[in-house]
Design goal:
106 residues, mainly alpha, 5 helices, 0% strand
């Protein structure tokens, strides 16, 4: 979701920097990308699900699926109400929470 919304807003996001010190981050990122993909690839999702279960167990995979579902629900609710977050407001929100001070690992 972050990568797609960032691309839509013209903001560069390096997802690899978001996985530092997170156990099974590669599997989580693969699962989240497959689960939230608008291209709906059942084979990719099944593969990602199996890899995530192998890495963290079924209960944590279910937790990850619930997080993906919640983000999808929030996005649909926001879009359904006509809410639009523009580039300037996105930058202001990032500054307000201190997100613009993070350094890239590149």
């Amino acid at each position: 979701m972050l990568s797609w919304s960032a691309r839509e807003q013209g903001i560069a996001v390096d997802l690899s920097t978001l996985t530092v010190d997170i156990p099974a981050s590669a599997e989580l990122l693969e699962f989240a990308a497959a689960a939230a993909s608008p291209a709906s690839d059942a084979v990719a999702l099944d593969h990602a699900r199996v890899r995530l279960v192998e890495a963290v167990g079924e209960a944590k995979m279910i937790d990850a699926a619930a997080v993906v579902a919640n983000f999808e629900m929030m996005t649909r609710l926001a879009e359904g109400t006509g809410a639009v977050l523009h580039r300037r407001e996105s930058k202001q929100a990032g500054t307000a929470v201190g997100a613009d001070v993070f350094r890239s690992r590149r």
